[in-house]
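#struct-queue
[09:14] JT: dropping the first one here, sequence first, then the structure tokens:
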Amino acid sequence: MMNLHAVVPVKALRLAKSRLAPALAPAGRRALVLEMLGRVLRTLNHPAITTIWLSSTDSLLLAMGLAWGAHPLYDTAGELNGALEQARSVAWAAGATALLVVPADIPLINAEDVASVAAALVNGADVVLAPDISGRGTNALALQRHAELPFRFGSGSALHHQAEATVRGLRIDRICSATLAFDIDLPSSLDHYRSLTTGQTAL
């Protein structure tokens, strides 16, 4: 039986979403991060997922994550890929047989997305990749325990993850989902998000 853990990495509130500074004051950026994080964590409270880890250097965020069902994991690496390696080690030690990474700025993720990733793993995929709208970034990445794929989040990460899986002879399934492909990094994506969610409460 699959024991799927999820990890959600998030920057400290004071650092998060600096690229949105032209559109949002610091208080607005903090509120947006909390809104998106709440949506992601609540969606990951899904029957397919056994445990959720929230990785951050921000103690306030870690404490707030508890209310959304996440186990706090203080990031001692100080950079994203190192934090994910730390989270992977913790998840394996806790008995996980697969790991799903979802950044905190994928606010439209839904239950069908989670079910699709889990189904791909159950059906034999070693690695499941959900690219961003450009096809170059990685908005979700799932790994079986035996698939020791190095994390390569950053510029062109989807291409790097694909190449790393190919070199290792791993079966990789790509999930093309409009909700998983959407992230918020620029004012234009924030405007689109607001147009979709105006009048809604957080999931």
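[09:21] JT: and here's the second one, same format:
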Amino acid sequence: MSTTSGNGSGQLMERRVGEVVESTSTSFVAQCYQLEGAPALGGLVRTDSPDIYGVVGTVTTEPLDSARPVLARGEDADSEEDVIRDNPQLARLLTSRFEVYIAGHIEDGITRQYLPPRPPRVHSFVYACNPEEIAGFTSQLDLLRLLLNSGASHADEIVGACIRQAASSHDQPNYFLAQACRTLSVELAADVARLNAILRRISP
């Protein structure tokens, strides 16, 4: 998946959204290069060398220095834009991070939708997947089991957001949604209430 030269390198740079700062066998945290540059909840991202895919589960904006908490600054401002304009230092005091739940990896050129032998390295670059990558990776749906069992307190929201986001990358989004619903029905056959709650989140 790596691209190192030509126009492909420039396109890959444009899709680089952050850098791994924490890493475990099941998830990793990336820091954004731009304060408003975090990918959306449920978005598919990947690291490079090795290629590890994951789904965005949480986005957080916080102070770079925990000893300097964020303070309200807009009491006399007419708009939120005025707050940002009048306090240009905010971009240097805040940072955005996003947590990613690992959904698979590439091994010997083959997509594996189970946890990789090792998590991504700290300082690995994180890229937003393009529609072609999303459609290709989500042509298999074993990743839904990983997400359902991720241990995240809002795992159902992550699953729903992932399916909604991925559907638009498929040539036949309704067919993809039907496949996802069938997969969820198998995975959650013993928990109908949970199944129905997720299905409501992804219904067209």
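[09:30] RK: nice, looked through the second one.
[09:31] RK: Residues 6-202 form one domain.
[09:31] JT: good to know. The chain has a mean pLDDT of 92.
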